[in-house]
Design brief:
Largest sheet: 5 strands, antiparallel
Number of helices: 41
Helix content: 40-55%
Distance between the termini: 33 Å
Structural class: alpha+beta
Radius of gyration: 46 Å
Number of strands: 26
């Protein structure tokens, strides 16, 4: 027994290698080096193939060999300097976190969802170039719906609507020591200047704000126009106290005319006629005829009858300027029901729109105003004032709705939408913190060993989660420094996605550390290096695959998606670096704790173990005591205990040698039951086969099984063997084919789009407004923009034809006669036709001649004369003789091309109301030119610059469904593209195109991104594993995960938008964690496909399950969000992704691998299930020091086991010892009747080189026991060779050998003589 060796004596400590004895093909004691050779040591596998003992993939083994070599050296370095590495790593991560101070959240829709460099991006850039940012108008909307019933058309409902809108117009904002009223901020039409200070002074306060409302059909609509204070023209005039409630413009004009030539009555009359301003509101019906202010001119004032509201609203309403302000019926009334005559009889909603200036217009309007002389007025301040007013507007409308029991009132402003998007994009620190805490708790519990607090890993699990959290923060800090902005997709997904991916690798390393801790052949100083050697390649593979996939997905030109994938890729890199560099340092520190026998987490306390053997029967203690080994001194041989169990037939007992006894604390804690089979019992047990286990034994066995339960044991003993069976494989195939079919069916049901109601918390005022607007109105405004490449004077026909094309678009609001509202060129032409008509009348009456005009000519005729004589040539600006021959507009309706830009200057200034109503936004703006009818000396009209930008406005209605919006966008795009190809460069602009045009190409970009991600995944796996078939199988399973997840979205009604598209791309990265580990475990194992599948599950099942559960714990925090969108689009989809990943990675992939998986990297030739034990390599020669001052003697490393017949070798020789463990089999035959109780056998420990047979004496009852003992001799082989540099020349090897021969010769001579 002196020559036996135990695996506890490691090669690095005693230069002893243990060669295993004969075992089963696949047993727990099987060495991983022989069953998972390329996983443990690719170098050994590579050399075994080169020796011809096996075949396999040498390219993959060569690559992994060198990767493992570098990772092993890295791990050993980290273990030696764990404190330094940990300090430097944490310091660098903390420094990277400082970059979070520069983080910004992008909420601008145009900068998030508009394709970078695409057509829409170029169009928006062109618009901003000419109009500037913050231009245009903003719409603040009030929608009213009934609480009960289906009809909103009642006097009380409209009066409530009046009070609500009126309250909104009374809102004031105090900012920068200035009170800002609604009239200061609203959008007002432009009135022409009449060169009369009194008229201009009177008209300025009477200029109303533009409010689109159904109240304009009634006299009460005048109350919204103001002014706040009545206008008084002075005591010398016959009128005063003017408001729109009592203003009759025609009556006022007659009063001005009766006063003589004091006022420019003709100019005012022409202006009112062109604008359609007649009697104002005084002749409209009153909703409440009993109102004292209701004028007597109202149709129902005298009768006191309530008007027919439905009839009044039929066809729409007119504002104060009927020619330019006609509100179509679909714009102000929703849910309409009409009778046979076409009159409205019932409606379910009414809508009013309050228009405000945009920040650019407000800044330009007040830039040189006296109102802001006391402050440094900027565009930022203008924007702040407008946003404050809009927020107050929403609040006022909400308060009005809460104070009534009649109807529902919903207010909404553009700022409310931006605030919601901003709130949605902000990180919920509470949810993130709770998610990380739950994951922390799970890591502690899952890695805790309840029966052994010394070997427990809760501490490193807790440290690993905190490390990954710090790594995520550091990665996001670097992203901020690189200028990658955050958005809703990144703030809601990235923290949980990055944590889940990082924790997966952490669990894999922790699991491998736990496995290596059981292997006594691994030196404690090489634990970290061995762990990185085994798992580092897989971690690198998954990390490189994920990072490459995410980087490739950045080809998607949508900024929100590109920012997401870039951030995800950077975080994957940070997680990989932290797991491979910093986490091993943490584990190395934990190894020190284990060596000092300290408890997990609470390392200040000594550890205790509860794994002592539960005695089923009392036993005697050994009287012999083996002294503990002394450092660098040979230790005494260990003692052994035999273990006896009954044979298969039950007629005799078999006793085998157990593990050596040691005084080591660890050795004393090893249970004897772990060596034998589960049914084995101590040799002190009674051997009677008929005696069953007692209740105490059952309890003890159950307790032991519960304490030692693990996912690894489950996968090894239950799950893996189950998947090997043919029925299980058939069932898995059928189920996953059905799942794939459901996925394809769900994909067909997926619709494009994203409803705004999805991103707003349900049951909030904003959600109710968006729901009502989508249900009843779906109102959007849009523009057709004409570009600078157009020759406007000569392409007028094409522009008129383009405008008529939009009659084909069903969603475009049209006038009562079915025609479209006039655009700027039409209004421009109509103004010129009116001037031509006035000129022709004056010309025919002789009031105007070629040389000029007379005093009795009209002002319009004079202006027509000035326009007709314009030539458009700056060198020869006018010719009077043209007045008789030229026409402003020819018979084909084409404006004179030569003087087109001269006419444009006159129109913009002198018909300002029409120009404003046209919303043309002509750029560059024509020069301001005021017509003076009394000046016959200055006949030149400035020529406007060539038009670079202009707009045609349209209103879209009933855009309720996303498919309707997308279809409308496609129709409009088709028209614009057709005219652009024919030489008229135009493009559409507006909210529908900014929000929804992404869906025109979203599926294409998603498909392109998925192809790139899957392609890169295949390429990386193929290159790293040198196994295209393995890469194909992984990619195939990943594609199935994507299809199944996409189908799941369709089945639960989730629409395809940018965020679901991001999750579909992410599913590939998350799926890699569920598949690659299993695949690598499969190809690195040895044996048949079923065997390799079982080995892969045994070692990878637990880490994958832990990673999946930890990811689910992080995602679970999203379920408590107040945003229904987060719950539906993030929690539901991400949860389904994890579940599908686990199902495909742990069920489908193992079955596929067991059927037609790739060949193993190593295929032994002599034994299909394991590699033969490799021949140990010689100890490498030590490096000789560069300078040796004296001869250095290398002492021989102490050996615990030696044969007394071999003399000690000189210390300058190195040796290897190969110990073959003995096997002792004791067979005891019971030679008595079965009913006779048998005696208990005794234990023994022996060493012999022959077979011994002995018989036990019969007992007093006549029982005879025959015991046969078979033993095998211990063989010890020592290979000696000199250590280079330790033997001088005079003590060379040859001389040594010669002396030995002489000694042997003398010994033989002496023996012969004797």
């Amino acid at each position: 027994m002196e020559g036996w060796s135990h695996p506890a004596f490691r090669p690095s400590e005693g230069t002893t290698m243990t060669v295993p004895t004969r075992r089963e093909a696949f047993t727990p004691e099987d060495s991983e080096l022989c069953t998972r050779t390329s996983w443990v040591d690719a170098k050994t596998a590579y050399k075994e193939i080169k020796k011809g003992k096996a075949s396999g993939n040498t390219c993959a083994l060569w690559l992994r060999w060198h990767l493992q070599k570098q990772l092993f050296n890295l791990g050993c370095f980290i273990e030696r300097h764990c404190g330094k590495v940990l300090f430097v790593g944490l310091l660098l991560l903390c420094l990277c976190c400082i970059g979070l101070k520069t983080a910004t959240i992008e909420t601008n829709v145009e900068k998030l969802w508009v394709e970078e460099g695409g057509r829409l991006d170029q169009e928006i850039a062109y618009t901003q170039k000419h109009l500037g940012e913050g231009s245009g108008i903003t719409n603040e909307i009030v929608i009213q719906t009934p609480k009960s019933g289906k009809n909103i058309l009642s006097k009380d409902s409209l009066l409530l609507h009046l009070r609500t809108v009126l309250a909104a117009t009374q809102i004031t904002v105090d900012m920068y020591d200035i009170t800002w009223r609604f009239s200061d901020l609203c959008n007002k039409p432009s009135f022409p200047s009449f060169e009369d200070s009194l008229v201009d002074q009177m008209l300025e306060p009477l200029t109303p704000c533009v409010i689109i409302s159904p109240l304009d059909c009634f006299w009460e609509g005048a109350k919204l126009l103001g002014p706040d204070h009545a206008v008084n023209a002075g005591s010398s005039f016959q009128f005063g106290g003017l408001k729109w409630t009592n203003l009759n413009p025609e009556h006022l004009l007659s009063q001005l005319r009766s006063m003589g030539n004091i006022f420019p009555v003709q100019a005012i009359e022409d202006f009112l006629a062109r604008a359609g301003i007649t009697t104002g509101y005084v002749r409209k019906s009153c909703l409440d005829p009993t109102d004292p202010e209701c004028p007597f001119t109202a149709p129902n004032k005298l009768s006191q009858q309530e008007p027919d509201i439905g009839s009044e609203l039929t066809g729409g309403c007119d504002g104060f300027a009927t020619k330019y302000m006609h509100w179509e019926e679909d714009l102000i009334v929703g849910g309409v029901h009409k009778n046979r005559s076409g009159h409205i009889v019932r409606a379910e909603a009414i809508q009013s729109i309050v228009q405000l200036m945009a920040e650019k217009q407000m800044f330009e309007y007040y830039e040189d105003s006296y109102k802001v002389t006391s402050i440094d007025f900027t565009r930022e301040k203008a924007r702040a004032i407008l946003e404050a007013w809009q927020r107050k507007f929403t609040q006022v409308v909400q308060e009005m709705g809460n104070g009534t029991q009649e109807d529902n009132l919903h207010g909404f402003s553009s700022t409310s939408l931006l605030d919601m998007l901003k709130e949605f994009s902000e990180v919920s620190y509470v949810r993130v913190a709770l998610g990380y805490i739950f994951m922390l708790v799970y890591a502690i519990i899952s890695l805790m060993r309840w029966t052994d607090f010394v070997q427990s890993q809760s501490g490193i699990g807790m440290a690993g989660v905190l490390l990954v959290a710090l790594s995520v923060a550091a990665g996001l800090g670097i992203c901020s420094v690189l200028g990658i902005r955050f958005n809703a997709s990144t703030t809601q997904i990235i923290p949980f996605l990055a944590l889940g991916l990082g924790v997966d690798d952490m669990f894999l390393l922790a699991h491998t550390f736990a496995e290596n801790a059981k292997n006594k052949e691994i030196s404690s100083k090489e634990q970290t290096g061995e762990c990185l050697k085994r798992t580092g390649v897989t971690v690198l593979l998954t990390s490189i695959t994920n990072a490459s996939a995410f980087f490739m997905a950045a080809i998607i030109p949508i900024p929100a998606l590109r920012a997401f994938v870039l951030q995800a890729a950077i975080l994957v890199i940070f997680n990989c670096a932290s797991i491979l560099l910093v986490f091993p340092a943490i584990v190395s520190v934990d190894l020190i704790r284990k060596e000092e026998n300290r408890a997990d987490v609470f390392c200040c306390f000594p550890g205790t173990s509860t794994t002592d053997v539960v005695e089923l029967a009392p036993r005697e203690r050994h009287t012999e005591h083996v002294a503990p080994p002394v450092y660098r001194e040979p230790s005494p041989p260990p003692s052994y205990q035999t273990i006896t169990h009954t044979s298969a037939g039950g007629d005799h007992a078999i006793t085998v040698l157990g593990p050596p006894q040691s005084d080591s604390p660890v050795s004393r804690q090893v249970s004897l039951s772990s060596v034998g089979p589960p049914s084995a019992s101590s040799s002190r047990q009674c051997l009677t086969p008929d005696e069953g286990p007692t209740c105490r034994e059952h309890c003890a066995q159950t307790q032991q099984e519960c304490c030692h339960f693990s996912l690894t044991r489950l996968a090894k003993s239950k799950y893996g063997p189950m998947l090997e069976t043919t029925p299980a494989k058939i069932l898995v195939g059928v189920l996953f084919i059905a799942l794939l079919v459901f996925g394809v069916w769900g994909i067909v049901k997926v619709k494009d789009g994203l409803d705004l109601t999805d991103i707003v918390p349900r049951d909030t005022n904003e959600w109710k407004f968006l729901d009502a607007q989508g249900k009843y109105f779906g109102f959007y405004n849009m523009y057709i923009v004409t570009k600078d490449s157009i020759n406007y004077p000569n392409q007028q026909k094409m522009m008129f034809a383009l405008h008529k094309e939009f009659l084909k678009i069903n969603k475009v609001i049209k006038k009562e006669d079915g025609t479209l509202p006039d655009f700027w060129l039409e209004l421009f032409r109509q103004w010129l036709l009116d001037l031509q008509l006035a000129f022709d009348q004056d010309w025919s009456s002789g009031c105007i001649t070629t040389d000029g005009w007379f005093a009795n000519s009209t002002e319009e005729g004079r202006l027509g004369y000035l326009l007709l004589i314009q030539t458009g040539d700056v060198d020869d600006p006018y010719r009077k003789e043209q007045a008789a021959t030229s026409r402003l507009v020819n018979d084909q309706g084409i404006i004179n091309p030569q003087a087109f830009y001269n006419y444009l200057t006159a129109w913009v200034t002198n018909d300002a109301l029409a120009y404003d109503a046209s919303m043309a936004e002509i750029k560059p703006e024509p020069q301001h030119w005021v017509y003076d009818p009394s000046d016959q000396m200055e006949l030149r009209i400035p020529k406007a610059q060539a038009i670079l930008y202009s707009q045609m406005p349209f209103y879209l209605n009933n855009m309720v469904d996303n498919q309707d919006v997308i279809a409308t966008i496609e129709e409009i795009r088709k028209i614009c593209d057709s005219y652009t190809n024919n030489g008229l460069a135009v493009y559409p602009s507006g909210i529908p195109f900014t929000f929804w045009e992404q869906y025109l190409h979203l599926r294409f970009y998603l498909l392109l991104a998925l192809i790139c991600v899957l392609g890169v995944t295949f390429l990386v796996i193929t290159l790293v594993l040198m196994n295209p078939w393995a890469g194909f199988m992984v990619v195939m399973v990943l594609a199935m995960i994507v299809v199944e997840l996409f189908g799941f979205m369709g089945l639960i009604g989730i629409k395809l938008s940018a965020i679901p598209a991001v999750i579909l791309i992410v599913s590939v990265g998350i799926g890699v964690e569920f598949t690659v580990h299993i695949c690598v475990g499969f190809i690195t194992a040895i044996g048949s496909r079923n065997r390799r599948m079982r080995i892969a599950l045994e070692h990878m099942f637990a880490p994958v399950i832990h990673g999946a559960i930890s990811t689910l714990l992080g995602v679970a925090m999203l379920v408590g969000s107040e945003f229904d969108f987060i719950v539906r689009y993030f929690f539901n989809v991400l949860t389904a992704l994890v579940v599908l990943g686990v199902l495909n990675g742990l069920i489908l992939l193992p079955v596929l691998l067991s059927i037609f998986g790739p060949k193993g990297e190593v295929q032994p030739k002599d034994n299909p299930d394991r590699l033969s034990t490799p021949t140990p390599e010689a100890t490498p020669p030590p490096q000789r020091p560069p300078r040796a001052l004296s001869r250095r003697v290398y002492p021989r490393m102490p050996s615990d086991i030696s044969l007394t017949t071999i003399s000690e070798e000189p210390t300058q020789y190195s040796s290897h010892e190969i110990i073959v463990s003995p096997e002792v089999v004791v067979e005891t035959t019971i030679g008595a009747d079965s009913g006779t109780p048998a005696s208990c056998s005794s234990t023994s420990s022996s060493s012999s080189n022959k077979n011994n047979t002995s018989s036990l004496p019969q007992s007093s009852q006549g029982i005879r026991h025959v015991t046969t003992v078979r033993t095998k001799a211990t063989v010890k082989v020592e290979v000696h060779h000199p250590v280079p540099g330790t033997v001088d020349q005079e003590h060379s090897y040859k001389s040594k050998r010669r002396k030995l021969k002489e000694l042997e010769g003398s010994d033989s001579d002496s023996s012969n003589k004797s």
